[in-house]
Amino acid sequence: MRVRINVTGIVQGVGFRPFIYRIATRNGLNGYVKNRGDAGVEVLLEGGKSAIQSFIKDLMEKKPPLAQIHEISRAELEGKEEYAEFSIHASSNEKELSGSIIPPDIAICSDCLKELRDPKDPRYEYFFITCTNCGPRFTIIEKLPYDRENTTMREFPMCSFCQSEYIDPSNRRFHAQTLACPKCGPHAYLTTQDGEVIEHNDPIREAGRLLSKGFILAIKGHGGFHIAATATKDRPLDRLRKTKHRSQKPFAVMARDLKAIRTFAHVSRKEAEFLTSYTRPIVLLDKNGDYYLSDLIAPNLHNVGVMLPYSGLHCMLFDKVSDPVFVMTSANPPNQPIIKDNEEALKTLGETVDYFLFHNRQIAQRCDDSVLRTHGNNLSFIRRSRGYVPAPIRLRKKSKQCVVALGGELNNTVCVLNENKAFVSQHLGDVENVETRELLENTLKHMVNLTNSKIEVIVCDLHPKFTTTAMARDLANENKWKLVQVQHHYAHIASLMAEHDTDEMVGVCCDGYGYGANGEAWGGEILLCSRETFDFKRLAHLEEQPLIGGDLATRFPLRTAGGILAKRTDVKDWLMQNQQHFPYGKKEIQLIIDQLEKDHSIVKTTSCGRILDAVSAILGVCYERTYEGEPAMKLESAAVNGKDVLKLEPIIRNNTLDTTQMLYEIYQNREKNRTADLAFSAHMYLAKGLSMLAMEKASEKGTKAIGFSGGVACNKILALKMRIAVEAVKFPFLVNEQVPAGDGGVSFGQAAAAGFSKI
Ligand code: ZN
Ligand code: ZN
Ligand code: FE
Q1: CA 736–ligand 3 middle distance (angstroms)
Q2: Alpha helices in 295-352 (DSSP H)
Q3: Nearest CA to 369 among 461, 464, 305?
Q4: Which of 295, 466, 551, 750 has CB 3.0 to 4.6 Å from 405, enough for a Cys bridge?
Q5: DSSP code for 45
Q6: Which residue ranges does the chain devote to CATH 3.90.870.10?
Q7: In this structure, what is the dihedral angle of CA atoms 487, 489, 491, 495, given to the nearest 10 degrees?
Q8: What is the pLDDT of residue 108?
Q9: How far is the CA of 123 from the centre of ligand 2 (A)?
Q10: Ligand 2: distance of its center to the CA of 206 in Å?
């Protein structure tokens, strides 16, 4: 009989055709297998019925480790058998099916690692060693189908040796598109900061040596450039902070192996699993008692972002040095996307770095490292990018329409929702400049093309002034798509409902800022959300608090603290004592006092982030926010070893959780108690108050689930304490595990909100 089988999922770039070839020939079948332009794979089989059945069994049970099969469709064909053997056919551009996708970048596999170290292997010490089971994918693919000529490997024709492996069905590199060797593949080279090539027969290890000596290097990776430096000497890091104008924002580090990580950080079993998985994310780990890395890496934080090498190049950096770890942080100008082109790197990084370690393969798609942390047994994404993107988040229900969502403004991603698969893009950054906007537009097109999606609806935030709102409007007009706007915090909770397939939820949404349904600034909300009706009710929230000077109060949290405390006490003397933390000192403080007395138009917010910031400032933990989340993150770090000394009972009036009294108590006790204990007490107050409100509302409304999302949900103390309270009364406590709880997950929430409702 003759059968045609179409397989969708992640089936290109994962050794799928070689696998099909093997199981077809093993079952004595003839025919062909080919990649299609819709990222799916088509198989034609000729042979006996039982052989075909056994083939299908093998297909489902023995698939390659990185392949994901979403659907298998089969059709019996008429006509005579035509094929005398089974072979891999040239790819076609056919695009009928949608929802398949190429794989993410995959860390170097153990087989390739062995060969890298084997002097007898032809790819001994070759930095770009890969096979069908590993190597870059998403970052090298320009278009489908996944063939070498559609990737940035097209510039490197295979030599006869590589070719012989490519056509050998028994070889691990049979039909591996990234196949290359020192003779035919990309090569690495060192240059000075001006781009002058430095002749060296071992440039990668020389780069390692230079790092060890204290030089700063830009190193080209899979998805963009890293800035690398020593992790133990202060001088180069201080210089790096000054030239990068990044005084406090933590740097990630790369350690040679797990053992090296354990010398300076705690690593749980779960964390070790993530660190060593093929996705190789940066994992935020608690520093241990022996922490010896420079304090300039993660200043005043209790944790540090660590990853393991994920390419041959990374492994080799550590070969000739005793350093167990290097700083390895994305190279991007402030608020701009990660740098990916050699020219671009030379132009923008020349003053920051001493040397460049380039290679001559182009990067097709930018992609930052992913960042995550664990909350006990739960995973919390800070950034979902390399290693995960573009693999879909698979949902139990199918979306009612095909949706693209543009996210919000900061830490943005875009999302395509196609039936029961959500394709969330890599981290794009803050959409406030031309570069990121362009990246967003191109990424959107790329994602729609890759997934072969026929978009019907485009979604954006409710904020009238967001760049993404204007873009969505234009795209809707251009393409005749329906435009839907989704309130920011509802989108956060919708992301939870979609992840957990829940139709109704009382969601606690805490973050820095979101445009409220009433046009006001929200950020500490208890929402009753329903998927079907695309509807939410704001049941409760944190007390509204003044933001003196608006954005200035976000940057200098003493302003927020002063504004709140002024309701209870005269804060002038206290602010004056802290005048060095105001850019304009006394004059500025006088202006604040005048505003408090006379100005009734001060912006107000219910933001939970701003409350944590204010506590941070009162305790002297952080006076200026130089990166997103800084005061709150440092407050969490300060609270790690604290005790609940204040034991404050939540004050709830008219569905509002009071925050003034809590802040006042912290202020009153700031000299009596340890900072750690007060920082912890503030967390406990919010955790108790928010969970109490949520539980009360859930029982009142008969809702079965309570969720916690928004940027503040990355805070481990809050998340764990709320979980304990909620689970104690047998409510399920749901958190984001597939997308970030922060704004990187908003596009997914928006898409789900529009896709699953009857609008
Ligand atoms: Zn490999
Ligand atoms: Zn070769
Ligand atoms: Fe948010």
Answers
A1: 13
A2: 312-317, 342-349
A3: 305
A4: 750
A5: E
A6: 188-359
A7: -170
A8: 97
A9: 9
A10: 24
Give this prediction's pTM. 0.96
Q: Which residues make Cβ contacts (< 8 Å) with residue 438, sequence separation at least 6?
A: none
Tens of pLDDT, residues 639-668: 999 999 999 999 999 999 999 999 999 999
One-letter amino acid of 118: D
Whole-number pLDDT of residue 335: 79
In angstroms, the CA 120 to CA 122 distance is 7
> Residue 157 CA: which ligand is closest?
2
What's the 499 CA to ligand 2 centre distance in angstroms?
A: 44
Ligand showing the shortest atom-to-Cα distance for residue 166: 2
pLDDT at 98: 85
Tell me the two tokens of residue 727.
């689970």
For residues 94 and 36, is the Cβ–Cβ distance under 8 A? Answer: yes
Q: What's the first-to-final CA gap in the chain, in angstroms?
A: 46
Instruction: Report how far ligand 1's centroid is from the alpha carbon of 111 (Å).
Output: 6
**CATH number 3.30.70.100 is the correct assignment for the domain at 2-88:** yes
Q: How far is the CA of 176 from the centre of ligand 1 (A)?
A: 10
Q: Where in the chain is the domain with CATH 3.30.420.40?
A: 542-735
Phi then psi for 383, rounded to 5 degrees? -145, 125
pLDDT digit string (tens) for 24-38? Answer: 999 999 999 999 999
CA of 117 to the centre of ligand 1 (A): 13
Q: Which residues of the chain have pLDDT under 70?
A: none
Find the 312 Cα to ligand 2 centroid distance in Å.
Answer: 16
Among the bound ligands, the one closest to the CA of 123: 2
What's the residue count for the chain? 759
Q: How far is the CA of 22 from the centre of ligand 2 (A)?
A: 24
User: Which residue intervals of the chain bear CATH 3.30.70.100?
Assistant: 2-88
The full DSSP string for 155-210 is: TS---HHHHHHHT-TTSTTTT-TT---TTTS--EEEEETT--EE--S-HHHHHHHH
Topology of 188-359 in CATH? DHBP synthase (3.90.870)
Backbone angles phi and psi of 118, in degrees to 5: -100, 110
Q: Which-ligand-closest: CA of 133?
A: 1
Looking at CATH, the fold of the domain delimited by 542-735 is given as Nucleotidyltransferase; domain 5 (3.30.420)
**Dist. CA 130 → ligand 1 center (Å):** 5
What is the pLDDT at residue 618? 98
Ligand nearest to the CA of 132: 1
Q: How far is CA 520 from CA 408, 437, 598, 629, 694, in A?
A: 16, 26, 21, 21, 22
- Residues with CB in 5 Å of ion ligand 3: 511, 743
**Residues lying with their CB under 5 A of ligand 2, a single-atom ion:** 159, 162, 181, 183-184
- CATH architecture, range 375-499+741-755: 2-Layer Sandwich (3.30)
